[in-house]
Amino acid sequence: MADAHAEKKHDYHLVDPSPWPLVGAIGAFVLALGAIMYFISKKEDAANIYYIVPGLVLVSLTMFFWWRDVIREAEHEGHHTPVVQIHLRYGMLLFIISEVMFFVAWFWAYFDASLFPAAVHEIEGTKTVIGMVERNELTGGHWPPKESENFKSVFDPWKLPLVNTLILLTSGTTVTWAHHALIEGDRKGLIWGLFLTVALGILFTFVQYYEYGHAAFNFSGHIYGATFYLATGFHGFHVIVGTIFLAIILLRVLKGHFTPKQHFGFEAAAWYWHFVDVVWLFLFAAVYIWGAGSAVGH
To answer: What distances in angstroms separate CA 278 from CA 9, 14, 169, 192, 284, one per listed residue?
Structure first.
């Protein structure tokens, strides 16, 4: 019988049996059920946010312990060979592509509504058309929509939106600085670059929160608010996730992780952050500038 502990003769890593895929699947299922129950309770005016807590706890624990194991494989067990790192990069690239598809959906909805504000759509039942929706009645036949109880005016793109754009673009510069510092072995530059990136990510979130609090339109009641908040809010969620991602990378740097030749965790966070930057540029150009037209009044 071959020695089970014999030294391996290849560059690949065959992972040890792990409970986290099963626990994560159960957590995702429980979280989905909890979300459904929450929405049902909210519809009945008895919203109970605690429905989502058990699933959220399971998913969060899975993320923490699973990534902890991956870090151990890289830092303490030496399993992340150059070949393994290549495949990890492929995985991160495919993940970012899947995220792009989410934003394609939001942009599609936004441009469909903004380019065809007077379109007529059929509402189809099981076997027949049960009604017609004329956007002209809802938007006034132009974009941005006509003023109503739920919609007063759009944001001036050259005020808070421009400030937030500069904040996010600056954070892209600081994370690139940190990357170059890591490659050159400059730990001090790496720490400062990451610290500033995390600080700018937090600042962006607070500015967007302030912006939402001063919006002259609601989420519901009209298509502008729905598409605006879905696109910018989903992006804001990604900024929060990316900020947490980079903060954890900063903690790992302070613990002495990463070398100029092995730092996939940092690269993954930096790629994700640049993706967030690029998406925001499209949002700023399409939703805030082009979408506002000549109707800027807030």
So the answer is: 42, 35, 9, 23, 10
